[in-house]
Amino acid sequence: MKLSQFKFDLPDDQVALYPHSSERVLNRADGTSQVFKITRRDESRLMVLHRKSGTIDMFKNKVKGKPKEEDFIRFKDVLDYFNEGDAFILNDTKVFPARLYGTKEKTDAKIEVFLLRELNQEMRLWDVLVEPARKIRIGNKLFFDESGTMVAEVIDNTTSRGRTLRFLYDCPHDEFKQELYALGEAPLPRYIIDNRPKAEGEDFAHADDEDMEYFQSVFADKEGAVTAPGTNIHFSEHMMKMMEIKGIKPAFITLHCGLGNFHDIEVEDLTKHKMDSEEMHITAEACKVVNETKEAGHHVCAVGASVVKATESAVGTDGFLKEYDGWTNKFIFPPYDFGLADSMLVNFYHPYSTLLMITAAFGGYDLVMEAYDKAVKGGYKFGCFGDSLLILND
């Protein structure tokens, strides 16, 4: 397929800049009331696409006249489409506070350093991206706190924006990481940071502690992601408990989501695009849950594009999931024959996004693009904090 086939018009106000929230009204005995805004990660909208019948559901029941907000299917309603014995494959990667701001020695120029991964614990070496890159050269020292204790030296250029840093911090490794992460912020995507209101005197918006909480799934466990597996962050503790009560089994795999999902595709012919590699791990325990579910004839739902990428990298020719420790740069776009999950749960994403392409490959290009058209016209929110699409094989 061609890149241009994934173009659609997305209004700026339909990109979710914050987690879903809803208003609650507290009525007091004295007749007064107060409105509270409460963040509810599991109350964003959910659209349901039925792959075989070609139908798309947006509302809980038939709607007469103009739909009200309470008429829409909610993310937490996804459990109504599954039964005891079914399984959800979830990504338990944990996001770390990867975005740091500092200054360059001598000039005090402000710089952004985005941590990608630690290369060597003993030498405190990190693979990073820097901005503005043109000002950061080998040999430069970068300062990250007012006391000057957290200092890094640029020791290599890796790409146009990529650098290798050596942090000059002499202490036990655990203490170093604790101090480093204390200086960092939640690595929210640029489409969020660049469009949020910024404080007076600031050049850009900053993420806060609340962002670090909500840009993280409730089952996050294995540290290593620099962006969240968007669909997984909609699950609440309540939903996880309801899954347990209903007998829907979780299978946890790990794929450390990288920035490659947000890189612009620069070729029209999608077969020529190369994805960045991402580290992934699939345990024997996860394989057991998924494969026993398939053998019993129950449904397996892949939650998020990262899970689809991981499981399609590790599925055998027999259709069963295999253990895996390594990396994947799998790029999925239509047409593609999926070997494992029979259903998929994913967010709505931007035009030209590789995440949209995975969704279109799973649900069928025409039907998915129809769903996206309905989502735009219906005021659905897009992005990692946005609304979601459930694709069923019925």
UniProtKB/TrEMBL annotation:
GO biological process: tRNA queuosine(34) biosynthetic process
Pfam families assigned: Queuosine_synth (PF02547)
Keyword match Nucleus: no
Source taxon at top rank: Bacteria
GO molecular function: S-adenosylmethionine:tRNA ribosyltransferase-isomerase activity
Keywords of the record: Cytoplasm, Isomerase, Queuosine biosynthesis, S-adenosyl-L-methionine, Transferase
SUPFAM superfamilies in UniProt: QueA-like (SSF111337)
InterPro entries tied to this protein: QueA (IPR003699), QueA_dom1 (IPR042118), QueA_dom2 (IPR042119), QueA_sf (IPR036100)
Protein name as annotated: Putative S-adenosylmethionine:tRNA ribosyltransferase-isomerase
Organism: Prevotella corporis
